[in-house]
Amino acid sequence: MTGVIVVSTVFALYASDIYEATGPPPIESDRTLYAFSFAVFLIFALEFIVLCVCKDGFLLSFFFFLDFLALISLIPDALLLFDIVVISSSSLSLARAGRAARAGTRYSPIATRMLSKQSCSNCPSGQADRHCEEIDRREEGR
Description:
By secondary structure, this protein is mainly alpha-helical. The chain contains five helices and no strands. The two termini are about 20 Å apart.
């Protein structure tokens, strides 16, 4: 599931910019991009609902509001599939910046954990096990 969220986040951040940067595409392909944008919105909405229901301490936390704002920022892109224009394109760049902030805060603990685990390989054999166990204890406490 994490892989789907990562791919969806990258798509939400960069797909429309890459689409526009490649030149004037055929109008028919706009519907495909809008359909994928709507699918990404549904994925994030489902993830948001699951986190609200299943994760203790998520409701009304910092990450709750960050995810909520990111989800709201996807609405203009998702509604394009139905030919509904909510806001201008200049406002969409602000929404993309919010989604980029969400991606950074979401994946920084994963990167920290991966880097910490890599540093275990540099420790002597007995210390590496204790170091990795300490990292696991800290992760469980979050």
